[in-house]
């Protein structure tokens, strides 16, 4: 049991630590990051219940609808809702890169609890595969969501556009990920290039967020220096 818990938790904490430590300016309060992680973890239970009802009642019989609605939209919407309602207005969300940290945190909270459940069901021998695919993909969906939420909060214009994209970009990517798993017979041949693309995109957005934070902090410094002259 301890081995399964460790294997289930370790990938999420490792990925969260990576994106957290990439914050080049004021690091986010650990308590707020942990709170966001817990919110994501708690989302597993109502979402799994709704998905169970969908399956039991055969509400979503199409693979396409199942991939994009039952899994992707349901999960990404609630993660997006947590970020928008709890994190977006919070005082600690004070630079664009913070969206990356909180986006990864809420997603990895969800992915970690889901991962533990799957490992208890399937066995610890699946730990590496789940770390490389479901856990890391959730982290990257969260990074992309957080990037656009951060861009929306700190952009002078088009705020609503970026907020909308912050939901639909991870929704589309997550749905595509699930559709490959559900429908492709030789899914690994499609999943490997998709995951390479997803890592490239996620790291690119994290880098862009750091650049935005640098510009934002530079402007704040300039304003403070002007004010104190």
TrEMBL record:
InterPro entries to which the protein is assigned, alphabetical: Peptidase_PrsW_arch/bac, PrsW
Annotated TM spans: 6-21, 33-54, 66-88, 100-121, 127-150, 162-180, 186-203
Cellular location(s): Cell membrane
Keywords, comma-separated and alphabetical: Cell membrane, Hydrolase, Membrane, Protease, Transmembrane, Transmembrane helix
EC number: 3.4.-.-
EC top class, as a word: hydrolase
Membrane topology, record value: Multi-pass membrane protein
Homology family: Belongs to the protease PrsW family.
Main function: Involved in the degradation of specific anti-sigma factors.
NCBIfam families: intramemb_PrsW
Protein name: Protease PrsW
Organism field: Cytobacillus purgationiresistens
């Amino acid at each position: 049991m301890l081995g399964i818990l460790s294997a289930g938790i370790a990938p999420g904490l490792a990925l969260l630590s990576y994106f957290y430590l990439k914050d080049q300016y004021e690091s986010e309060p650990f308590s707020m990051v942990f709170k966001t992680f817990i919110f994501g973890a708690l989302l597993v239970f109502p979402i799994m219940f709704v998905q169970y009802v969908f399956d039991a009642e055969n509400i979503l019989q199409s693979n396409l609808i199942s991939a994009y609605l039952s899994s992707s939209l349901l999960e990404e919407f609630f993660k997006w809702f947590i970020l928008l309602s709890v994190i977006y207005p919070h005082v600690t969300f004070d630079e664009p890169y913070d969206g990356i940290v909180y986006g990864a945190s809420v997603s990895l909270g969800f992915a970690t609890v889901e991962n533990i459940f799957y490992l208890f069901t399937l066995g610890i021998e699946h730990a590496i595969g789940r770390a490389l695919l479901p856990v890391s993909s959730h982290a990257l969906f969260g990074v992309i969501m957080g990037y656009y939420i951060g861009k929306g909060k700190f952009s002078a214009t088009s705020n609503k556009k970026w907020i909308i994209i912050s939901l639909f970009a991870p929704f589309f990517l997550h749905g595509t990920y699930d559709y490959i798993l559900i429908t492709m017979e030789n899914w690994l041949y499609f999943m490997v290039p998709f995951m390479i693309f997803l890592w490239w995109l996620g790291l690119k957005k994290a880098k862009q967020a750091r650049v935005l934070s640098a510009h934002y902090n530079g402007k704040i410094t300039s304003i403070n220096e002007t004010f104190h002259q």
